[in-house]
Design goal:
Blueprint lengths: L3 E2 L4 E2 L9 E3 L1 H5 L5 E9 L9 E13 L4 E14 L6 E15 L14 H5 L3 E2 L5 E3 L1 H11 L35 H12 L1
Parallel strand pairs: 7-8
Antiparallel strand pairs: 1-2, 3-9, 4-5, 5-6, 6-7
The chain binds zinc ion (2 copies).
One zinc ion binds next to loops.
């Protein structure tokens, strides 16, 4: 899996059970300026309580060697399953995002000793390579999805939301309810909506 084709600088991809982890030992052994390109295709990711992917992740990863470590430039495309904030219908929201980060080794490649990564480095969002010289992008991808997901997604721009009398979407069915059907607790809200 660390095999590499010297013709185009491409390397074999990650293992099937860790699709977002790349072994970069070969690249670290090269001089500054060396680079590798990888394709990311159909990667599934369980977002737990944070997000729900509606489509697998596709993307491109370019990793280049610097004096200190690696520069990671990647772009991704996927889709999220979300709820319209007004009518609560489930919607699919396309999502693209990029990662541009520095990745630094946790172990010196030649001596095998721990490198002196400062707390400052880790706080500024530097990716720390594993002790097996692996670049694990999963945490950065999870963060990027949360940072880039829309805050107030809508199923359509002019979604009218829910009826305050019956609670069903206003763009479905007839909401010509008699006035006395209105829950008195919602009366104040109705006045607010009419004013707005
Ligand atoms: Zn809606
Ligand atoms: Zn209604």
């Amino acid at each position: 899996m660390t095999g590499r084709d010297p013709q185009d600088g491409r390397s074999a991809g990650p293992a099937a059970d860790a699709p977002l982890v790349w072994n970069v030992a070969g690249l670290l052994g090269d001089g500054a300026g060396a680079a590798r390109d990888y394709a990311i295709e159909g990667v599934e990711l369980d977002g737990g309580d944070d997000f729900r992917l509606a489509a697998p992740i596709d993307g491109r990863l370019h990793v280049s060697r610097t004096n200190r470590g690696l520069l990671v430039d990647a772009d991704f495309a996927t889709a999220l399953t979300m709820e319209c904030v007004r009518c609560l219908r489930e919607i699919t929201v396309p999502l693209t995002f990029e990662i541009h980060d520095e990745a630094l080794p946790s172990l010196d490649l030649k001596t095998g000793k721990a490198t002196a990564l400062s707390a400052e480095d880790e706080e500024t969002g530097v990716i720390v390579l594993t002790s097996h010289h692996e670049l694990d992008l999963e945490p950065a991808i999870r963060d990027a999805i949360l940072l880039n997901e829309p805050i107030a997604p809508l199923d359509r721009e002019d979604c009218p939301g829910l009826c305050i009398v019956c609670g069903l979407p206003l763009d479905e069915g007839d909401h010509d309810h008699p006035d006395d059907d209105i829950d008195p607790r919602l009366e104040a809200l109705r006045g607010f909506v009419a004013d707005g």
